[in-house]
């Protein structure tokens, strides 16, 4: 009987001391929130090719369709119906994104392409992701000098061809070597 009494007294006096745990949480939660890395993700809407079985009327001229083929050593800018517009060779540093952007600005200024906002990027299977993203930026936006700033000090940018579709590049031999004006 004596053992029961001491057991009851021990159970009745047992309390949970969570003060130390609460102090830890008060310090730890703000610390984790402050030191967390927040990454920004931008999403680009892509137009993926769809299988259409509709036949185009033969009496109408097919619409102009601009294509940029990413090869291992160059960019080929093509008009789907008329062929190669320009071949932009790589520089010593790698792909010539600035040259591509400048040529696409000239194409956009041409009356046949100034209304169109779509372009198709065709790439070889071993194209790096970084190359794809930089090419998409060169095709989407007009890159201007840092000297051209707005009233808030931001670089002025415009749109070239924001509607981007993607696909696989045809084999090198299938590309035409004749350069035509846009």
Could you give a short description of this structure?
Helix content is 29%, strand content 20%. It is built from 4 helices and 8 strands; from the N terminus they run H-H-E-E-E-E-H-E-H-E-E-E. It has a 6-stranded mixed beta sheet, covered by helices on one side. A two-stranded antiparallel ribbon has the order 6-7.
Reconstruct the topology from this structure.
Layout: H1 2-12, H2 19-35, E1 46-47, E2 66-70, E3 74-79, E4 83-89, H3 97-109, E5 118-123, H4 129-140, E6 141-142, E7 158-159, E8 163-168
Parallel strand pairs: 1-8, 2-5, 5-8
Antiparallel strand pairs: 2-3, 3-4, 6-7
Helix pairs in contact: 3-4
Key features of this structure:
protein transport, six-stranded mixed sheet, alpha/beta, cell membrane, transmembrane transporter activity, Nucleotidyltransferase, domain 5, 4 helices, transport, 8 strands, 182 residues, two-stranded antiparallel sheet
């Amino acid at each position: 009987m004596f053992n029961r009494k001491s057991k009851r007294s021990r159970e009745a006096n047992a309390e949970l001391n969570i003060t130390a745990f609460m102090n830890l949480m008060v310090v730890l939660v703000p610390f984790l929130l402050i030191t967390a890395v927040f990454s920004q993700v931008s999403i680009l809407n892509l137009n993926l090719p769809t299988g259409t079985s509709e036949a185009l009327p033969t009496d109408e001229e097919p619409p102009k369709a601009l294509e940029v083929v990413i090869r291992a050593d160059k960019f080929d800018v093509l008009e789907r119906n008329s062929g190669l517009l320009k071949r932009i060779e790589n520089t010593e540093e790698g792909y010539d994104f600035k040259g591509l952007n400048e040529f696409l600005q000239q194409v956009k200024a041409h009356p046949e392409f100034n209304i169109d906002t779509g372009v198709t990027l065709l790439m070889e299977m071993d194209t790096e992701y970084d190359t794809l993203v930089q090419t998409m930026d060169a095709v989407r936006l007009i890159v201007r000098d840092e000297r051209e700033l707005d009233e808030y000090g931001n670089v002025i940018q415009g749109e070239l061809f924001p509607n981007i579709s993607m696909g696989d590049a045809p084999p090198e031999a299938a590309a035409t070597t004749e350069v035509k004006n846009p």
